[in-house]
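Cross-posted from the bioinformatics board.
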Amino acid sequence: MALDRLFNVARKEFSDHITSRRFIIILGLLLVISTISIYDGIENYNNSLEAYTEQLQHMEEFADPYKSWMPQKPSIMYVFISMMSYMTMLGGILAIAIGFDLVSKEKETRSLKSLLSHPVYRDEIINGKALGGIGALGFAMALALAIAVAMLLLFSVVPTVEEFAAILVFGAVSLGFLLAYFAVALTMSTAAKESGNALIYTLVIFFAVSSLLPMFGAMAANAFAGDPPEAPEMGPMPKEVVRVASSNGYSTTSVAQSVVYGGTEDPAWREYEEEMQTYIEKRRLISDISNLLSPQMNYYTVAIAVTNPQLSSMIASPYDTATDEPAGLAGALGRVWMNIAALIVFPSAFFAAAYVKFMRMDIR
Amino acid sequence: MIRTENLTKVYNGKPAVDGLDLEVGEGEIFGFLGPNGAGKSTTILMLTGMIEPTGGRCFVDGIEVADDPLNVKKIIGYLPEDVGFYGNMTGEQNLDYFARFYGMDAKERRERIAELLELVHLDGVTQKAGEYSRGMKQRLGLAQALINDPRVLFLDEPTANLDPEGVREYRELVTRLAGEGKTIFVSSHILSEVREVCRTVGLLAKGRLVAQGTLAEVARALAPSDGDAVRIVVETRERLPAIEDPAIIDIERNGNHAVVRAKADIRDRLAASLFEQGLHVREMRIEEPEIEDVFMAAYRR
């Protein structure tokens, strides 16, 4: 494979994408929505910051008895949380829109035969097409992030170095998500004879992995984990700590219970607590495995880890008592390494399938 | 310049090209004839390195195509049947994209493209290739096949979408290119097209080469066998009387017209006999089979 030929294909594909009406319209929509939601996010951030400052002042003025409990300073990454929801929808559509006819259109217009008659290997063509598409999606993502950062600066919100790194990681994770659907679309475009069919197959996979799979995962978890253990009939009222964490498109509830009776724990309640923990872990394991196959779920998990490491930490360890220690970006990413790996494996598998299919394609 | 050895391509257990042995010399204009589905395009795809043969080998300028398709593509040009382009790009942009694969620098590309667009009368056309008529696409196809100034040119049904003027220009161009020493391989199912430009032909039917040589040689080889019999067409002004000669096998008579099947060419004796009987001979000739009929018969076999 020669790089000059590969880049020739990639250059043409990239140029085709960014000048196509389809790409410009969807990207325009994405950027408009992105701008509005970032504006909303900045307002929310400013309100949270104001509330935080007031809380600090209040604690200092009244010698608050909960002084040891420090309110958490809002992060500007909260601004990006709203980006997740439309990125999964509009971003997914953008990725599908640029990929679903990449090969099938060349078959339909017979330009593939003309192209292959010149000195270029098939792998250079398919890799060049993939590279051009990745470049176009990267360009879209970079534009969205650039607008977001520009708006932050416009509203005098200056990210720290760590926050800036988090923004870049968020962009990379979002790009990874877009690549998942771009890879699916490219594979379907290579497998299908007509672009219309390629689009339908891609949409079927899109909805299957984004909606059906998590639903089946939850059903499978219910089926395999069985009924939850029953609480003991007699006993003292448990001391219950309920933590509810929610974000756009993702919410979790964790319950931690501990029962103290006369200075010693009630063995029945302790046993119940252990059974409940096992039950929840079993359910969670099955649902996590099925979620790993869904780019959406992986994206949500990783993006939450980047934008809100504390929430991510609570989701990952619901039985841990709340810690006041702020979880760092690296730590949060470390906890979701499987989801990061899945976000890499999913598009890689589809790119590999597209490659193999294209190399064996009948070009009569 | 072009050689195939037992070249075979099988699709779904069915041979599209079956043990093809072919040889085309340098500078020849070779017509590859055959009905639709005979395996002509499949043969070209193998010769241009776009598909791999199931069996056998093929060579272009001594390079085995399956072993080194890229180097073969550097010295050949190919105009596919129903050629296609990128509809969102102009003809010039399409040619520029293809030219980049040959390592031509910007100046070289610009000059070559301008020269080719002028050659195919598409210079000054600013519309996108997606808006081209089929004839314009065909002419752009010819330009893209010539982008690298190839030594061997493969043309698959080159006149299919051309108007009469386009066909005339195409013929002139092919003759000129052959004059420059290029080998031209023209695939067509239209005999009249091939006989206009080609010096040698090969006839393919059901994936097999039926005959190869000059048109006259192929026609002779394919003519229906009538033993050593000669068919003589006779027409007189008057009604034909009974004709007798020991060499005559049979006569098909129709008023003043007859077709005489004889063991040898007995035209001199026949003419003398008719003259002696006071008849005026209007026509007397040996009947050669029509080349179209010969090819049609071979197509149907």
